[in-house]
Design brief:
The chain is α+β, with helices and mostly antiparallel strands. It is built from 4 helices and 18 strands.
Length: about 300
């Protein structure tokens, strides 16, 4: 039994506007009601923009890493993002890491990775979903999705679909302290329709209940308390958000507020793990290897 990764959901004050921005940067038109980006490459999951009831505060615990084939290509991505309403942001980086950190119009971080990053060399334009999280979170994701570990060293973890596409990476401790609501979380769904069996399997792997979700989704949290949603089989990612009922914390998690789309677990703040620090690391370190201190 395994799950499929259906979507990365992003809470937004202006879902359609943020979808237009991300679609412009990624070269993907929004579909349906203008709040979903469907991949036209091997990214393998949608981007869904869901209504949030408050603006972003602090640093997100997830962000996308976009790769570059050359310095000119890197600059084109940056110029495109700035022209669409993005901006350079300071998360405490030194300035000599090679990659660039941008914010979308609502402040969500994205890294534009320098050319020559060997770890993301064959991952496509969307190279990775980089997460603040522990090895236990990576192990759960690997077992849940059936994606093998492609990095497992020094408490840093990365998984990738056996069919290719982006990696999902976790930077290991120290983790960011929880201070606010998560704006980004994953939607998964069972491949064979046996959702109850999959929920039992996830709980056995270390997930914890996080309340009832919208439109039939079930909210869970990984071992770090990061929320994700399990959809009914073969159902597209829900539009109105999912996760725990408002104010319902994950079992054993430190009492977080509800997320912008009903998700219970908040974001952590503190250190932040960029991708490909150190010029892509000749030793092939993963994109989350190395950290910079958080601004402020």
């Amino acid at each position: 039994m395994t799950l499929s990764l259906v979507a990365l959901s992003v809470g937004a004050l202006d879902p359609a506007g943020l979808a237009r921005f991300r679609g412009g940067v990624l070269g993907r038109p929004a579909t349906g009601d203008g709040t979903t980006l469907v991949p036209d490459d091997d990214t393998r999951f949608d981007l869904r923009f869901l209504p949030a009831d408050e603006p972003k505060t602090g640093q997100n615990r997830m962000h996308l890493d976009l790769t570059s084939t050359s310095l000119r290509d890197e600059q084109r991505t940056v110029d495109r993002a700035l022209a669409l309403g993005g901006r350079h942001i300071d998360v405490g980086q030194r300035g000599d890491e090679g990659h660039l950190v941008l914010g979308d119009p609502e402040g969500d971080e994205v890294c534009v990775i320098e050319p020559g990053n060997r770890f993301l060399a064959d991952c496509g334009f969307v190279g990775a979903l980089a997460c603040d999280g522990s090895q236990r979170a990576g192990d759960l994701c690997s077992e849940a999705l059936g994606w093998p570990l492609v990095w497992d060293q020094d408490q840093e973890t990365a998984v990738r679909s056996p069919h290719g596409g982006p990696e999902i990476t976790w930077g290991g401790p120290p983790l960011m302290p929880r201070t606010a609501r998560d704006r980004l979380h994953l939607h998964v769904a069972p491949r064979d329709g046996a959702r109850e069996a999959e929920l039992d399997r996830l709980l056995a792997l270390g997930a914890t209940p996080a309340g009832a979700g919208h439109d039939g989704a079930v909210g869970l949290a990984d071992p770090d308390g990061t929320p994700f949603c399990v959809l009914p089989a073969r159902q597209p990612a829900v539009r109105r958000g999912c996760g725990g009922a408002a104010g319902t914390p994950a079992a054993g998690a430190p009492g977080p507020p509800a997320g912008p789309a009903g998700c219970p677990a908040p974001r952590r703040r503190g250190r932040w793990s960029p991708a490909g620090r150190g010029g892509g690391s000749p030793a092939g370190r993963p994109p989350t290897a190395g950290r910079w201190p958080a601004a402020g």
